[in-house]
Amino acid sequence: QVQLAESGGGLVQAGGSLRLSCAASGGTFSTYVMGWFRQAPGKEREFVALLSWRRGDTDYADSVKGRFTISRDNAKNTVYLQMNSLKPEDTAVYYCAANDPGRGGAWHYWGQGTQVTVSS
Prior knowledge:
Number of helices: 0
Distance between the termini: 40 Å
């Protein structure tokens, strides 16, 4: 079965950077859309960024555009989220997700999450 495993979260000061990784296994991802979501305390889970594996097309939430970059390494089946100029409001648990268009485009697969904490 498909498994997604996030890593790279941690503590960082405002203005700093982190790179999150999402290692994908157990499936064929060439036609998938990959995404990053986050959930802050007391808030609903929100979209952060997405990438189409085959073409590399990307999209971002307005709140992170210009600061975050989603990318992939096809050979390693890994998706990255480079986060620069971090702000305290970026503090959240970050989740990797996979969307299979052949199954209706739902976010069927999720990682366990990795905590990102940005101090003031």
